[in-house]
Specification:
Blueprint lengths: L1 H30 L8 H17 L3 E6 L11 E4 L5 H6 L6 E6 L8 H7 L3 E3 L4 H16 L3 E4 L17 H9 L3 E7 L16 E7 L13 H13 L2
Parallel strand pairs: 1-7, 2-5, 2-6, 3-4, 3-5
Antiparallel strand pairs: 6-7
Helix pairs in contact: 1-2, 1-4, 6-7
Length: about 240
């Protein structure tokens, strides 16, 4: 009974915070529209949101490492392993300005999807070649405007703790745009959001660790696979 009550409170507070985030993003997007076309201020509202969600959940013990590896004056193609929907919450702990590449279905979730649209994240329709081309065109445009782009290059959540095979697109993009790859390791989130139940039952330890960036200026376009394998090896070995 005690766990059920705690879980109800956690979900209720999480939903309330996400609704509050939506209204905060709407307000700053309208008020600052002429001055904030990149939606940086709207995006920054997610920073208090992630701090509140992670701080108020008694079942989450979170550690953040490697923030010193982020140069706030640089733009990155950030790549991360993917274990659960909680990864999205944790990524904002980096306090980076970025645009996600996210599957189209996430944009259809009430409130969450509205927030993603307001922040101008990048929509991917899986299995649609024209959508994939549009994604990389949008991603290139954001990088040229000084906004980093985040990919989960496994393409979907992995089935175990091992880092899965990476797709090539993020690494081709980084070489083409001559921006560094920023590997970001996430651990422990697999059970952060209960599966098949609404109850939180187990205390978990989560880690988000920003690894040193990998410069791409020495990589020719044909060498994207070496860059891909290097980034995956760094994430696998930490």
């Amino acid at each position: 009974m005690k766990q059920a009550l705690k879980s109800i409170i956690i979900w209720s507070v999480g939903i309330l915070l996400t609704v509050m985030l939506f209204f905060a993003m709407v307000i700053v997007s309208i008020v600052l529209f002429p001055f904030d076309r990149r939606r940086k201020v709207a995006h920054a509202q997610c920073f208090w949101w992630t701090d509140a969600l992670t701080g108020l959940n008694p079942y989450w013990d979170l550690k953040v490492e490697g923030l010193g590896n982020i140069d706030r004056n640089k733009t990155y193609v950030a790549v991360s392993n993917h274990q659960s929907m909680a990864d999205i919450i944790l990524m904002y702990k980096t306090k980076m300005q970025f645009k996600w590449v996210a599957k189209e279905s996430l944009f259809k979730i009430p409130v969450v999807g509205w927030n993603m649209r307001l922040a101008k994240h990048i929509r991917l329709k899986r299995g649609d070649f024209s959508s994939t081309k549009k994604v990389y065109k949008e991603a290139s445009a954001w990088l040229r405007r000084g906004i980093s782009v985040v990919f989960f290059p496994e393409g979907t959540r992995s089935n175990d703790s091992a880092v899965g095979e990476f797709q090539n697109g993020a690494f081709k993009l980084a070489i083409k745009e001559k921006v560094p790859i920023l590997p970001i390791l996430i651990k422990g989130t697999r059970d952060a959001i209960p599966k098949g139940s609404w109850r939180f039952t187990t205390r978990i330890s989560c880690l988000i660790k920003v690894l040193p960036p990998i410069e791409t200026f020495e990589y020719p376009p044909s060498d994207y696979s070496r860059l891909r394998d290097l980034a995956r090896a760094q994430l696998s070995n930490n």
